[in-house]
Amino acid sequence: MPECFPFCGWFYNLEKVRPEEVLAPPYDVVTKEEIEYYKKKSPYNIFHLELSESPSKAKELLEKFISEKIFLQERVPTLYYHELEFEYQGKRYLRRGFILLVKLHPFEEKIILPHEKVYNKVTEERLNLLKATSFQFSQVYALYEDPYLFTLKELPESLNFFLEVTFGTETQRLAKIQERSVIEKILSFLKPKRFYIADGHHRYNTALKYKAYMESLYGKEEFKDYNYISMYISPFEDENLLMLPTYRVFKNLDGKSFLERLKQYVIIEKESPILNSQESFEALETAQGDFFLAFEKKLYFCRLKEEIKKVLKERDPELSALPLWNFLQIFEEIVGVPEEKLKEEERVEFFSRQEEVLKRASQGDLGILFPMVSPEILKKIAEKEKVMPHKSTYFYPKILTGLVLAEVSGKRIK
Fold first, then answer.
1. Apex CA 59: angle with CA 57 and CA 61, to 5°?
2. Rounded-to-integer distance, Cα 218 and Cα 358, Å
3. CA-CA distance, 239 to 98, in Å (whole number)?
4. Which of 117-131, 163-177, 353-367 has the least mean pLDDT?
5. Tens of pLDDT along 75-98?
6. Could you count the other beta carbons within 10 Å of the beta carbon of residue 76?
7. How many CB atoms lie within 10 A of CB 248?
8. Which residues contact 172 (CB under 8 A, 6 or more apart)?
9. Are 280 and 272 in contact (CB under 8 A)?
10. Quick one: pLDDT band at residue 60, thresholds 50, 70, 90?
C-alpha cells in the first residue's frame, strides 16, 4: 500500500514575489497564448521553469532563482494542507486536500491505479526536464477512499494559511501541518488505501522513468527522494469534488454527412439553436441525452438506441458507463479513423469549457459535449485495470503549478 511522507518542500519567497504573478495553471490545460501571458507576468513565473525553452535553460534559471532566494526550502518535514474555494454554475464549493510525498509503484502492483491512456512523446519531454532540474514543479492529483472524511477531521485546531491566491472566481490556500501526532494519524489512515490517479498520468509515468534512470546512476536505495512523487490528494467522498467531462472539437470533418450517419446509432431527441451561452447551457442541463452534438449553430441531443446500448455494454460492461467511450466507439465506425490518429494530425482539440465548443461549432467545426458522470465510474474502471480514452475527465478546478516544489536529486527523505 502507498507509503506517504511529509517533506521539506520548496516554495516561493513571498517577500520577494506576488503569488498572483508567479503561479500558473497546470501546463496541459493552457493555450500557447496563455503560456506567454503568464510568462510576461513575471520573470519568476513558474512557466519559465515548467515550460522553459530547453531543459538546460530551466536548470540555469532554477539555480538562479535559488541563489537569489526567490525559492526557499522548508526546514521541517511538512504535510501541506490545501483548500480550493471556487464557484460552479452559481454555487460555491470548498475542496480540501493534502500535498505530500508518495512512494512510486508500477501500475501492475495495483497500489497506484491509472484510468487514462498516456503518450510517450509527452513523457519524454517531461523526463528530459526532470533529468536537468531534479525538481517536480507540479503535483499529480490522486483520490482515496475516506467515507467519513476522517483525514479532514484530523486537522489541527488552528491552521495558519501562509499563502492565499485568487485567480478569477477561484481562491487557493496553503497551510503547513508540522505536528507529528496529526501527521501520523493522517498517514496511518492512508497507509492501507489505494490511490486513484485523477490527473497527471504523464507526470506519474515520467517519475517512474526518472526513478529507473536515477537507479541506473546511483543504485537502489529505499529512502532516496527519487523513489517518490509529490502528490495532491483528496477524498472521493468529498461532496465538493467535481469531475467534469472533457469536450471535443473536430476540424475538417464533414459535419452534415457525420450527422446523417450518426442517426443509425442514436435518436435525436431535440434540436436547439445555439443562441447564446446561457441558453445553451440551460438546454444541456435539462436535456435527456447520452451526448450532445454542436454543429452549424445547432445543438442536437443524442440518445443511444437501445440495441446500440446493448451492443456497447456487451463489448465492455465498465467502459460503456462512460458516454465519451460510447461516442468514440460510434465515431470510429462512422469515420473509420481512431481519435488518437486525428490527435496526431491536429484535427481534434480538447476543451473543458462549453463556451469554446459552442463558439467553434458556430464557426463550422463539429463539437461534442458530454454530461457529468460520478467519480465512482473512474474507480470501477481503474479497479478492473482498464483505461478510459485520453482526456476523458476534467477535475475542476485544477491545483495551481508552483505552490510547492519537490526536489528529487538523490537525497534521503528519512
1. 70
2. 52
3. 16
4. 117-131
5. 999 999 999 999 988 899 999 999
6. 8
7. 25
8. 82, 83, 84, 85, 163, 164, 165, 166, 399, 400, 403
9. yes
10. very high
The pLDDT tens digits of the residues spanning 376-398 come to: 889 999 899 888 988 888 999 99
Confidence (pLDDT) at 276? 61
Give just the sign of the alpha carbon dihedral 131, 127, 31, 382.
Answer: negative
Q: Give residue 84's region: left, alpha or beta (phi > 0; psi -120 to 50).
A: beta
For cell 435518436, the residue is 267
The set of cell numbers assigned to 242 is: 467535481
CA distances from 174 to 28, 41, 81, 297, 400 (A): 22, 22, 6, 43, 11
Q: Is the pLDDT of residue 277 over 80?
A: no
Contact 176, 160 (CB under 8 A): yes
Contacts of 387 (CB under 8 A, 6+ apart): 114, 115, 116, 117, 381
Count other Cβ atoms within 10 Å, centred on residue 190.
21
